[in-house]
C-alpha cells in the first residue's frame, strides 16, 4: 500500500520556488513569445504525459513540459524545442508558479493537458490520512488550481482547450481504489460544469477516460494490475486519442470505446449495473 507518482520518481529541487518559476536571467527581460500553438503538459515525465507530449510535438505544437523529475522531462523533450518547467503541483503555490512560468516563457497557452496524478491501492480502512490528502491534493485540487491560473488568458484570447486525463475508476468506482476513484470522478464532474460555464468563450473542455494503461503507474503504487479485463492499452494509444480529441474539439473520449457501456447500463438498469459492479468492480 504505497502512494506513487504517475509520471516520475520525485526529484525535489534544492530551491523549489526558484526552479518552478524558471525566471529569466537578470537583465534579459521577458522571454520571446512564439507564434506557434503552445501546449502545457503536466505529468510529462513519462507514461501518458510523455507520450502525449511527443504526439503534440510531432503535430507542430510548441511544448511546455512539467513534472517533478527534471532528468525525465529532459528525456521527453529530447529532439524537440520543448521547454522544461519542473514543478511540484502539490506544493501550496505549485500551480500558480507553474502557470506564471509558462506564461512568462511564451506569453500564451493554447492547450493545457492536465495529466499529473498519483495512485494508492489498498483497503480504504487502512489508508493513512496523509495519503488521502496526498491523492486528493494532486489528482484533484492541484488540477483545479492550475486551470484557475491558466484559464483567464485563454478566455481573454478567445480560444483554447483544457484536456483532463481521467480514469475508468472515476466512472465505475474501483474497490480498494476509493480515494483515487473519488478524485477522478470529481475531475469528471468539474470538467462537465466548467464546460457549461465556458460556453461562448471559445475555450473548450475535453475529458479523456482511459482504462488501464501499460505504464509504471501500477508498479509504483505498490500493486500490479491483475485483471483480465479491460486489458491495458499503450500510452501512445491514449496520446493518439488526446490528439484526435483536440483536433476534432471533442468533449469526451474513452479508451477503449466500449468503456462508455457502464454508464449506459447504469442509466438504463441501475440494479443490473450494481450486480455487475459487485462482481467485477
TrEMBL record:
Residues 1-35 are annotated as: Disordered. This is SDR family NAD(P)-dependent oxidoreductase. Residues 37-216 form the Ketoreductase domain. It comes from the Bacteria. Keywords: Oxidoreductase. The keyword Oxidoreductase applies. SMART domains: PKS_KR (SM00822). SUPFAM superfamilies: NAD(P)-binding Rossmann-fold domains. Pfam families: adh_short. Belongs to the short-chain dehydrogenases/reductases (SDR) family.
